[in-house]
Amino acid sequence: MSFQTNPTPAADAAQPQRTEMSWRRTMVSFVLVLLLLFRLAAAAPAGIRLAAAGLALAGWLYLLLLTRRRARRLRAGILEGPSRAAAVIALMVVGYAALGILLVATA
């Protein structure tokens, strides 16, 4: 297996498309996690169910806005390095895990 140290111009041109596709995969995975959290929330007490569903939905909507903003910037040709988006996604994964633990513990 060989690694290119100097990528070709065609490989550079495909980078925005690959990045946008990775954001779409992230959104699909978060939709699946959101559905699983809603399923867990259905068995929880009413107050916890409402709070967990609201937090999970708010996090997903924020991620949706972040993803769409990033995709628009990529289509416009605005290429930027790593952003705070990775940290936000990591925090959301931890938050979703905590919600799942809370829901399982109260069910």
For the structure shown, list the relevant keywords.
107 residues, mainly alpha, 3 helices
Estimate the strand proportion.
Answer: under 5%
Q: Class by helix and strand content?
A: mainly alpha
Classify the helix fraction into a percent range. Answer: over 70%
Query: What kind of sheet is the major sheet?
Result: none
How many separate domains make up the residues?
1
Evaluate the radius of gyration: 18 Å
N- to C-terminal distance: 50 Å
Give the H and E element order: HHH
Unreliable segments of 5+ consecutive residues: none
Overall average pLDDT? 78
Plain-language structure description:
This protein has one domain (13-106). The protein is 79% helix and 0% strand. The chain is mainly alpha-helical. Helix 1 packs antiparallel against helix 2, helix 1 (9-41) runs parallel beside helix 3 (85-106) and helix 2 (46-75) packs antiparallel against helix 3. The radius of gyration is 18 Å and the shape is elongated.
